[in-house]
């Protein structure tokens, strides 16, 4: 009997589904440190030596103290916006333990010193380290992003704490990453950095939604042949599941052959074992940049230049919307063919957002599918509701002798979870959660796959199928 | 601008057609039982449970995957009828 095409299609579909599930479940999670670990040394004279580049955002972020009235930490004078002044890195320190810190940042040795201090919200204290010398000066507006990198001293050893407020204003999550767009790097060693911010609201939810941060590296030369999904040119530089909020920094160096490359950084809210991206989540952001290592190639340049020309055209215009760009279509005014066409055919982000919002408001909220939309809105919410407590009074020997028992399931579950998080293996420093979470995940994943596989196998049991029914009819 | 106009026009036309349908802001109450409030409270309590105790969230994710598989099967059966897998 020749199997019908639909038969093969459904087999292929189900087989693909199983493969997808398996690939999701068994892919090993790449544990990465959330911060760049720094381990300063205590010098013989009692000073603390910091490794080169310990303040990783120094050159890129313009690390500095931010106040409404910028203060030159070297001179102590208040500076109006736009004037050069020293940049600072922040170092968390224990109260009453001021240390002189010698460091080499950005390849130029400054004369840093603690110039001020204060209390952090987590109970630790910080001290501002000021770099002297013009090598660290720069002009910044008052709205410049703030970033500080803190380290905590414990038992004479300093370790990394956490980042500060680098880009937690507004909806921006990916603060930036390098190489910058259009960079030409000598190679073969290429440095990559990524800075991103995870809000507390981004984490949690009944499906344990987390922010999955992925940085992928595409080789344009191969992907431009429209077979990108089949090539093995994608390199995942960083795949981190954010479980805590705050600022994060990632840096690595990779050897790359000459050519044109596209770098993509994305941060997404996921569920189903980080398999499916929650559509429409505000967190979802993707940024692409393109750069050249060594000598570029013809095909790579074709693709990269098209991308860069478009970006360059839009970036060079002072217009902030495609409507404003269309002003370039006026033949009696400042006519510009490129900007005119870009304004006519490329919708800006505001217009796209308006259209999507219009579709949500005008279509998806209507009955009957509006019930599904409302259901999905409720289900995808990460808001928590306090679990109800149960209290009962038990009479003892007489009516005046009673005992009140209160059962709080929230506290009980939280206590259990905290216990699993706090019990630590003294040898490798891993908690019970670190050890058993992968095992539980694997067990659940295997049970799910077996359940689905059993269901698929049973669907091929034709004992009660049409042929069997026909044979039974013949017998009767 | 032209592309945005076309998109908006499509959304406008479809929205105008569906505007005759009532808008849904909350799930209905059935026999005095407020499904919307119950679901909001229930999901919130599930969130509290799973946030506090992570093993439960893993098991619940497995449950959701199986439910998604069955929903997929129902969807395929709805679309292609008796030719769907398992309906020989």
Task: Name some characteristics of this structure.
heterodimer, A: about 475 residues, alpha+beta, 6-stranded mixed sheet, 3-stranded mixed sheet, 23 strands, B: about 90 residues, mainly alpha, 3 helices, 2 strands, about 70% helix, about 5% strand, extended
Largest interface: A-B, 77 and 57 residues
Estimate the mean pLDDT confidence of chain B. 80
**Any idea what the radius of gyration of chain B is?**
20 Å
* N-end to C-end Cα span of chain B: 52 Å
The profile of the biggest β sheet of chain A is: 6 strands, mixed
Shape of chain A: extended
Distance between the termini of chain A: 25 Å
Low-confidence stretches of chain A: 1-7, 15-76, 78-169
Order of helices and strands of chain B: HEEHH
Description:
- The complex is a heterodimer of chains A (476) and B (88).
- Chain A has 476 residues and is an alpha+beta fold.
- In chain A, strands 14, 16, 17, 19, 20 and 21 form a six-stranded mixed β-sheet that branches. Chain A has a three-stranded mixed β-sheet with strand order 1-2-5, with no helix packed on it. Chain A has a three-stranded antiparallel β-sheet with strand order 4-9-8, with no helix packed on it.
- Chain A is extended and about 100 Å long.
- The N terminus of chain A is likely disordered.
- Chain B is mostly helical and 88 residues long.
- Chain B is 70% helix and 5% strand.
- Chain B has a two-stranded antiparallel sheet with strand order 1-2.
- The longest helix of chain B is centred in the C-terminal third of the chain and has 27 residues.
- The model of chain B has no long low-confidence stretch (mean pLDDT 80).
Q: Can you lay out the helices and strands and say which pair or pack?
A:
The complex is a heterodimer of chains A (476) and B (88).
Chain A (H helix, E strand, L loop, with lengths): L4 H22 L14 E2 L5 E2 L8 H5 L22 E2 L1 E6 L7 E2 L1 E2 L2 E2 L3 E7 L5 E6 L6 E2 L10 E6 L2 E7 L10 E5 L5 E2 L3 E10 L11 E10 H8 L7 E8 L3 E10 L3 E13 L4 E2 L7 E9 L4 H19 L5 H4 L11 H9 L3 H16 L4 H11 L10 E6 L6 E6 L1 H14 L9 H28 L6 H10 L1
Parallel strand pairs in A: 2-5, 14-21
Antiparallel strand pairs in A: 1-2, 3-10, 4-9, 6-7, 8-9, 11-12, 13-15, 15-18, 16-17, 16-19, 19-20, 19-21, 22-23
Helix pairs in contact in A: 1-10
Chain B lengths: L1 H17 L10 E2 L2 E2 H18 L1 H27 L8
Antiparallel strand pairs in B: 1-2
